[in-house]
């Protein structure tokens, strides 16, 4: 009878560690036949509009008021610090998206660089980030819509549903638009929405310039430098749209060229709007 080998087999923890640190090579992350089912219709302009549309919203309309309370006129410096820090993140995203032009964004980049376990943790954080961000935008939009309708029509809007119901209906509407496809859904509807939001921001800037009172700018730091630094993290919420651009990598006509252009342009446009709207 043959004797069993006295060499111990791989332990459970060793195998688990090997799986956790398993990396995905850049070559296998390149575009392959399995991804060609997606329609490649997006250009650099479309990607820029996606990034702007993901940032111009609650990031500018809501965060500005929240950040201004503890900082005062120095809120502009909070946005400046947030914009500078976001520039470095955007450059990293642009480099990685050009190297690995596959949908998956930071999850895929972490999978290639650090391994599967780190990618899983980052992916879970990204899911929470996207869900929270979408909930904040939908809730704020529904609240503004409800208040606007009640101010315009008064008692006629007694039939108007609650803010939660309006939010749910808006989510269903956006889901239906995305289900139509890239050409007829995402490109056209997103373009109209972005130009509408940009027009509102420009209107606020133009009207706000006529209401400026220099006396309100003194003192610049009424509560010190500490709140300015802490609120810069909150203000960075106004510049996170460039991360959404990378998720459209497999629907981009020329991802190696258009993804870095869309990421950098969307960040610069949002930074300019945020600074001017303050």
UniProtKB/TrEMBL annotation:
- Domain named Amino acid permease/ SLC12A: residues: 47-273
Indicate the transmembrane segments per the record: 44-66, 72-94, 106-128, 158-182, 189-208, 228-247, 259-276
- Family annotation (Pfam families): AA_permease
- Keyword list, A-Z: Membrane, Transmembrane, Transmembrane helix
InterPro entries from the xrefs? AA-permease/SLC12A_dom
Per its UniProt record, what Gene3D superfamilies does this chain match?
Amino acid/polyamine transporter I
- What membrane topology is annotated for this entry? Multi-pass membrane protein
Coiled coil regions, renumbered to chain = none
Record localization: Membrane
Q: Which PANTHER family match?
A: CATIONIC AMINO ACID TRANSPORTER 9, CHLOROPLASTIC (PTHR43243:SF45), INNER MEMBRANE TRANSPORTER YGJI-RELATED (PTHR43243)
Protein's recorded name:
Amino acid permease/ SLC12A domain-containing protein
Taxonomic placement = Eukaryota, Sar, Alveolata, Dinophyceae, Suessiales
